[in-house]
Amino acid sequence: MTTIAGVARVTVLGAGTIGASWCALFLAKGLDVVAYDVGPDCERALLAFVEAAWPLLGELGFAPDASISRLRYRSDLSAACAGTDFVQECAPERADLKVALLETVDGLIRPDVLIASSSSALTVSEMQTRCRHPERVVLGHPFNPPHIMPLVEVAGGAKTAPEALDRATRFYEALGKSPIRLNKEVYGHVANRIQAAVFREAIHLLASGVASLVDIDKAITDGPGLRWALMGPFLTYHLGGGVGGMAAFMQQFAPVQQKLWAELGSPALDETLQAEVIEAMRREAGGRAMADLVHRRDESLVALLKSRSDAAAERDD
């Protein structure tokens, strides 16, 4: 039996897109996984997702004990939590639902078992309010799809113990993830706030008629998106300053940045604008099936990760 940072069995609460992806990752690392959901046809959909993800996970490397046969599905919450060493919560993004679910789970598991929420925006302080052991509730927010994307955002709430954050970070690192620690809570965490800022301006540019949806997407994928796969915005602009680094960049471009910030749009996503974006996206998709788009994305992500890993290995040599 594989044990990773003291964890041999993981319970995943919610078998939707994020939960199923977490299940696939945990299985690929050789862990026993129990998935809980009560939705219709969830068990079949979960297994189909894991089987579809398995070949690409193999390209990234399986643990010796990796096997889909280690997956169990339960529609009874108590049965799903029995004997678990780690809980990854992936319920729908509703505060009332998550608060109630975590309260119930908190009473079903050992006091030493961590509860990590995959919430994309809610704070741990809000979700842990009714737990008897709030000290073990943490944020473990992945980037979609979790079975491929390295990022996990780790944060605590007002009552989270520092030791719980350390344990969660060690667990995700041992899985091969790239966790970051938030120094304080903020709605949307870090990556989604940055992503939201970019998306807000993309919506503004589209609504203002500056460029088409196709060209706005291309401006990212063929422009800064390529650099962002290698370095973040701070290092990007540090290099943009030339030999003088960030200091030279600020000296030359701070007024330009300030002017750009002042002119960035603040569109209201009303029904009219939503319909415009949806229609423009429908035209760009061109009738391609969602499953085909997802497979192409995931294949490209795996190829990119392998390329980054190979490049890092060459530098180390």
Automatic annotation (TrEMBL):
* Ranges where the 3-hydroxyacyl-CoA dehydrogenase NAD binding domain occurs: 10-184
The entry lists its GO molecular-function terms as: NAD+ binding; oxidoreductase activity, acting on the CH-OH group of donors, NAD or NADP as acceptor
GO process annotations (BP): fatty acid metabolic process
> InterPro entries under this entry?
3-OHacyl-CoA_DH_NAD-bd (IPR006176), 3HC_DH_C (IPR006108), 6-PGluconate_DH-like_C_sf (IPR008927), 6PGD_dom2 (IPR013328), NAD(P)-bd_dom_sf (IPR036291)
- UniProt keyword Lipid metabolism present: no
Keywords for this protein = Oxidoreductase
Q: Name one Pfam family in it.
A: 3HCDH_N
Q: Does the keyword Oxidoreductase apply?
A: yes
Q: Start and end of every 3-hydroxyacyl-CoA dehydrogenase C-terminal domain?
A: 188-254
| Alphabetical list of Gene3D superfamilies matching this protein | N-(1-d-carboxylethyl)-l-norvaline Dehydrogenase, domain 2, NAD(P)-binding Rossmann-like Domain
Q: Which PANTHER family match?
A: 3-HYDROXYACYL-COA DEHYDROGENASE FAMILY PROTEIN, 3-HYDROXYBUTYRYL-COA DEHYDROGENASE
Write down what this protein is called: 3-hydroxyacyl-CoA dehydrogenase
